[in-house]
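Exercise 7. Given the components listed, write out the predicted structure of the assembled complex. Treat all entries as one system.
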Amino acid sequence: MKARPRARGSIARWCAVSAGVDKRWAGGWVSLLGLLLTLCLAGAAAIGVMSATAAAKRGHAAPPGVETPVRGTVEETRRERGGPAPPTAEGGREAPGKGHGHGRGRHETQAEAPAPEAEQEGGAAPAVSPTAQTQTSQSSSKRHRELERERRRERRQARKEKEQEGRAPEAAPKGRQVPVVVTPPVAAATSVAATPPVSSPTVPGAGSMPSVVAGARASAGSKARRSHRSATHTRHGSAGGARARALSTLPAASTASEAARGAGQGTGDPKATPAKPHHASSSPLVRTVTQVIDVVPAAIRWVIAGLLALALALALSTRFASRRAQRLARQRKELLEDVGLLQAALLPELPERLGPIATTAAYRPASGPAAGGDFYDLFALADGRLAVLVGDVSGHGRKALPHTTLVRFTLRAYLEVGMSPREALQAAAPGLERQLGGSFATVVLAIYDPRERRLVYSCAGHPPPVLDGAGSLPQITACSAPPIGVGWPTGTRQTELSIPGGARACFYTDGVIEAKLAGGLFGVERLRETLAGLPEDEGADELLERVAAASDEHPDDMAACLLEIEGGEAGGSESPPAVLVEEVEVRHQELTDGRLHRFLAAGGLSEAEIAEVVTQAAGAVIRDGSVVLKLRGGDGRPRVEILDNDNVARMRITARSDAGSEVAV
Amino acid sequence: MHAVGDTSGDRHAVAFLIEQRQLPDGNTVLEVEGDLDLASAPKLKWALADLQAAGAHNLIVDLHGVGFIDSTALGVLVGAQRGLDVGARLLLICSEPNVLRIFELTGLDGMFDIFPTLEEALALTRSGGATRTR
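Answer.
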């Protein structure tokens, strides 16, 4: 069921891509319609050109005479109109009988150059006479007949007009005939130039020769009458008059070609009316388009017009839709940027250096809609120690922002009063949980003591820091404390490390290690490698930049705090970072569900020692509800201390290499 | 047996699927397959809510087909745990080390009842005890 819309979408997308428009379905349909339209137009144009060239070939290939019916009729028409007829005057006189009507009823120049026009367009011959029409028209003979009838009516009317005018202006018919005589040779010449496919030698063939001769004769004789002619012609249509005027002033070739073109329009177009001579003066492009449109049948013309209108409407709607989509996308981006901006505004400006520690922090909003929720803080405590705070509140966007500030400043306050990270977490968690209203927060709190070069940190559902300078430390993950706000006691774990000079500690949020790669997640190991490969003068910004560059996407926010501890060069012989103390607060559950067991096992205690510790701890838990265990390592011999409520070690169990253990009470 | 979630294989390498399976003893198991992340967590949330609305006493979620859980999905499980009716319980079945490690790192392994197999989880529901075997 899913395949269908997908396939349709892909077609639309393909169309859209091929047409280079917006990647939307409507765009695809518009381009499809555009293609159809182009095909229609191209087909119509091809039909027009083919019919024109075919007719022209027919007209030229056949010997000028009566072999081809079309040709025959053309010849007849020419003779009728007095084109090739001997003297101008006689031609003019003869014409009124048959050809006169033709000449008058149409266009003035129509009668002037029927022969070359017939040569040039060939297919246009039907317009010349009813006989020719029946021979050439194949599909729309009915329409042509109607047109012919209309034309005849016009002719009759024109004749009547003329009769009304009286026979007084004797010069008028003569004058009208002058262009008839002048144009043929030039028109023949234009036909050569205008129709390249037609081989030139055939054009001024035997059929057209008489016109040339007649034209030559007439041009000689007509010069004297020109002024008078032009004066009389102005009455018969402005265009005709203008052309006549042009004849008197412009060089013969150009004016005659103009006239021939006018004649071409008149004879070539079956629908031509006296109102259309402006085609003659327009550009070749417009003329070609007009000619193509003239060839297209009326019904198809309407279809094309409809398609054009539809395409236009669709294109417009697509345009509006895409603009709206663009606007919405822009607004969304701005909104996300705003969230990022607000988030960034809530993040503190950090001092570049706190004592002997270079500090940098960076924040990158998620690449998706999950921006917001990460926070960090870094500040100096009164006694010169340095406090670090990195966390992530569940939920994203605007709703998460107040929670991030709440958690951050609450925890900061507890650290400021001098509590250890674990104590601060434990003290702050219940109050925070009430205020988080169902949300929860993962957080890591740390205090670095530069004098002792010791880092103490406590996590609540948060990944521990990554260290550079000593490979991976064997940090114990068992008995980790849960996040703040999940309805479970937290602040139950704390780790104390020694960090020598020159080492780097990186605190981060889970968005960093959960950045996505082709093969899965970025992970802690890659982060450790990235940190190790980071140049000394680069900070958290560059670290996150590298993480982002190495991963495909980061669907969650990324935040990182980097501490660079100075003094590496002086203490080259310093011991590498080492875990000194792992602290865990144990309740009944940790004793029974095996988590304490795993914690102690990870600390290097034997089964017997673990059993001893568990037994001792269980007694304290029954009595006090909970007990704090400190697993001390670092010097090769793990030692467990069980503390009482006053933080005083009630019992010490030291593991020994010979599997025995020292118990001191 | 019917699918609750849908396959969102377009963006994820592994299609995400939640299947609801009725057991002979009346319990219903949600079998989750694929990564539980920002995109798929809501589906688990609604599936759990449906199960709870249907009056299920034991919400059993089988995470055997899950390779990764992110903080959003953990939040869903936390929400389900906290929203349990009196006497109801959420039982997670998981033996995938990566997912178990995520539970451990976030300290949530103490909060949830996690069992390596469905049989162990069902044994607990039959005995009615609260002791967990890990």
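Discussion: The domain at 15-87 of chain B is CATH 3.30.750.24 (Transcription Regulator spoIIAA). The interface with chain A takes residues 37-38, 68, 70-72, 75, 78-79, 81-82, 101, 104-111, 131-132, 134 of chain B (CB under 8 Å).
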